[in-house]
## 1
Amino acid sequence: MAMTQAQTHSLWREIISFGMPLIVGLLVATVLRIVAYQPFTIPSSSMSPGLLTGDYILVSKFAYGWSAASLPFGSPEGTERLMASTSERGDVVVFRLPRDPSQVWIKRVIGLPGDTVQMRDGQLLINGSKVPHTALGPAFDLDEPTRPVEAFEEQLGGGRAYITYDGGPNLAGDNTAPIHVPAGHYLMMGDNRDNSLDGRWGPETGVGFLPASHIVGRAERIAWSWKPGASLVKPWTWLNLRGDRLMKPIK
């Protein structure tokens, strides 16, 4: 039996009353994701031990202002930042890979525009001065428990300290020529120094120099962290969390 006009109107009112809050909620979430904070999942161990595979992090979009890189599918080529502010040495930054902006990577800011950066026997030098680092002794890579490493506390000044991993002497990336960072760019490195393709390598294989326009935002906090084997597509693993990492600040 066909519905009357009144029944049709009533059905549409119910659909709208049910769907409108959902639509508004999605719009608000999208705006917040673009303007304020965007979540990302850590896919590799290049920033271990500070960030582990499975960490779900919150990235501040307003920390450095906005560019097309801030948009979910934006292309940063040739764009300027709105209300731009500069990244600081030691910031952990999410960015679009210069050679392929569809890829989103995460590394630490080591070299600022105008800096000269060099690795010498595994020791980081900035503008000719050795960056203080304190040996913490042998450890195992938290993401690769069978891989032995040496842990160091590296100090960039201003109270910024974090732990790096060294996989051994004379490995690729342990010794570089002096690298001069051009204006408007940054040099990025992973904390897991011997397991990171970064600014020590050219843009063909690593990051090269990172243009400021390619920065998505600053990584600020680990919202939660899944243990190995957990996945969004496996609901029965959603509560398989690393409890000690919930809402942990990123150093």
Note: The longest strand covers residues 100-111.
## 2
Amino acid sequence: MDTADSSARSDSALWDPRRRAFTAGLILVITLVAFEAMGLGTALPTIVADFHAGQWYSWPFTVFLAASAVGTVIGGRLSDTRGPAVPLLVALPSFAVGLVVAAVAPGMAVLLLGRVVQGLSGGVLIVSLYVMIARVYPERHRPAAFGALSAAWVVPALVGPLIAGLLTEHASWRWVFGGLAPLVCLGAALLVPTLRRFREPSAGRAAARPGLPLAAAGAAVGVVALNWSAQHLSLLALVVAVVGLAVLVPSLLRLLPRGTLRASPGLPVMVLARGLLAGLFFTAQAFVPLSLTVVHGFSPAAAGVPLTVGSVGWSVGAFWQSRQRRLRGEQIVAAGFLLVAAGVFALVWALPAWGVPWLVFVGWFVAGMGMGISVATTAVTVLSLSPEGERGFNSSALQISDMLGQALLVGAGGVVVSALATASSPTRGVLPLDLVLLVAALPAAVMLLRSGRVKPV
């Protein structure tokens, strides 16, 4: 029996004495991961300038994403076969090692090696934490646990770029990585007592899934190929994109639950919805700073404020979903699609030259709320629908869908904006792109509502 379920009568939530250290460690680790993610973009221009490696500007992000895809699958498989404690005990110090490698890197090659280690460890880390949440917290408290995960991103979103900028300017960009490593070890120390209590393998039998490591590698290659192709519009890029898709599609058939691409009711539609939501939200968000800067004359700092506002809305939405008991998961996620659609609708009226730019702040808070209620709800629902021996695989599928949705739609969005741009109007493609995203969000909401009325097979 799941230990979390056996304590279902307890009225305590996150800060029960039995879970207090784990909750604190969980929030600290995710906060540090978020600080590193938010700070890298601020420090990266200085890093590539120091290494004289401008042509490698996007690769610290790309290799991290590819390695994360592999780590996610490995973490899910290990969580199902060995239990989540083992991969967590390996991933936490490994992530710290990756930070140190990046901090002491003498050149871009070693920095990229550090990012690969961070990506592998981070992928294992996130999936293992998902499975641990299912073991540590009773089912009715899991929405609050995932709400805490979302809340852990707020402070890094508010002050992470500022702190990274100050460190880069007045000390060294190396502190953006190295300064976090000891704190990651502290977070690990807080988690260890709970990990020891839950170190046994899953009581459920994990299904045999041959070829998962190869499929994970295929997904990583496909993601890298598609990202590279989106940045290099040429005949060669088209060939690379086709090859990437040829590798990616069969890999996904192994990495995602059966029926995901058909939006089958239950767990598959939740996995699919997670990828669609991530793609819609982050594709629209990617061009907000550009439009505000080029079209409306915002300073770089002011143009980044809507992203912070969206992060705050994300946490508000996650908190709201943690208090819901009556709505079905499909209804909540459908509402999330509608809120993201409302945010994109605000962008349509805010970003063009004739628009009202202050609407972007309201709209992106609303869109962030949509993501907050939906991301947490998809995680909670997937765990509740998963047999114990399948939680790792299904949680990794959720993350793969999220990453792939972003990679595909952000890349496609970049192609659209670049294709329609002119010297006098570099953001001319943003409005058509937002209209397409707005139209795509509405049938996705209908898909979720219809799925909720069908009993899963």
Note: Residues 218-255 form one domain.
